[in-house]
């Protein structure tokens, strides 16, 4: 259980950076505003994870000609949809959940959970330190966070494919709308994955079946929580990959408008793995290529310098 938790924490940290990057690309592609990510607005609710995600998104969008193209009094929209505007709040809550899980893992890594245990003064004592509740709870908690981040990501994908909400993009980002399907099936895939992730978010740690003639009458079910969290992490990676694939295609279709420097670098990485817009083609290999890109942490050279420079407030005064 502890090994799986440590692996999940490592993977989720990288995936949440990728989720922030995908959100920034989608915000640019959907002609969203970056004003809501201002540091003073985020400091009004000083959760550390929220501040980190907002700063990463804001930094990626800095200097974007696309954002500048629709800024000002001529923009008729009052505010962006939740899936754009509230990305730091959701991604940040997931970051704080990972931080909490890491604190639990750190305590466990320095703990003695043997039963019986030999004490420092030489006693041989039976005890209950082996019980997996502390780990099981955070394994379940992380699965909830993964499902919610993926759910928000899929909503941004859907928005980019809908001409009524995409701000002028072709239906389904198709090369020949009405004939081609574009990325319609990619959104189907994301929706199916999110549906699975919601089921995986049902906690295992609330379940317990007695064994050993009622001696072991309450168990943590932590291993079940660990196994489903691994599936949830893998599903989240695929959903984020689909958003990155979709946002990159949407931004290509915004030409001659150009992206910010940070987002342009991300698109270059994606274009090295998959081709740009064109007639319908088999999408599975392209999705798999971006999943591999995200899983290999190849985005880290772009994102890590930004994430490393992001301040993490320790209390309200610092925020």
TrEMBL record:
Keywords: Lyase. The lineage of its organism: Bacteria, Bacillati, Actinomycetota, Actinomycetes, Micrococcales. It holds the Pfam family Lyase_aromatic. Gene3D superfamilies: Fumarase/aspartase (Central domain). InterPro entries: Aromatic_Lyase (IPR001106), L-Aspartase-like (IPR008948). The keyword 4Fe-4S does not apply. This is Histidine ammonia-lyase. The keyword Oxidoreductase does not apply. Transmembrane segments: none annotated.
């Amino acid at each position: 259980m502890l090994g799986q938790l440590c692996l999940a924490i490592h993977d989720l940290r990288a995936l949440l950076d990728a989720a922030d990057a995908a959100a920034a690309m989608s915000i640019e592609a959907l002609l969203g505003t970056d004003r809501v990510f201002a540091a003073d607005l985020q400091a009004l609710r000083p959760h550390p994870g929220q501040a980190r995600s907002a700063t990463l998104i804001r930094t990626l969008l800095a200097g974007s000609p696309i954002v500048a193209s629709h800024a000002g009094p001529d923009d008729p929209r009052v505010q962006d949809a939740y899936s754009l505007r509230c990305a730091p709040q959701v991604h940040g809550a997931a970051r704080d959940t990972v931080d909490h899980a890491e604190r639990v893992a750190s305590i466990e890594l320095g703990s003695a959970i043997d039963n019986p245990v030999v004490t420092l003064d030489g006693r041989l004592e039976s005890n209950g330190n082996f019980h997996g509740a502390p780990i099981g709870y955070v394994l379940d908690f992380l699965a909830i966070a993964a499902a919610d981040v993926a759910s928000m990501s899929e909503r941004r994908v859907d928005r980019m494919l809908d001409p009524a909400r995409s701000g002028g993009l072709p239906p389904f980002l198709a090369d020949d709308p009405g004939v081609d399907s574009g990325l319609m099936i990619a959104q189907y895939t994301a929706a199916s994955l999110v549906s699975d992730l919601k089921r995986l978010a049902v906690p295992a740690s609330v379940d317990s079946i007695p064994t050993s003639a009622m001696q072991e009458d309450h168990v943590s079910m932590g291993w079940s929580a660990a196994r489903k969290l691994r599936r949830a992490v893998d599903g989240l990676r695929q959903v984020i990959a689909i958003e990155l694939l979709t946002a990159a295609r949407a931004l290509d279709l915004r030409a001659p408008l150009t992206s910010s420097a940070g987002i342009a670098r991300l698109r270059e990485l994606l274009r090295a793995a998959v081709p740009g817009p064109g007639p319908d083609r088999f999408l599975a290999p392209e999705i798999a290529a971006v999943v591999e890109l995200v899983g290999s942490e190849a985005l880290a050279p772009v994102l890590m310098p930004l994430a490393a420079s992001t301040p993490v407030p320790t209390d309200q005064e610092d925020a």
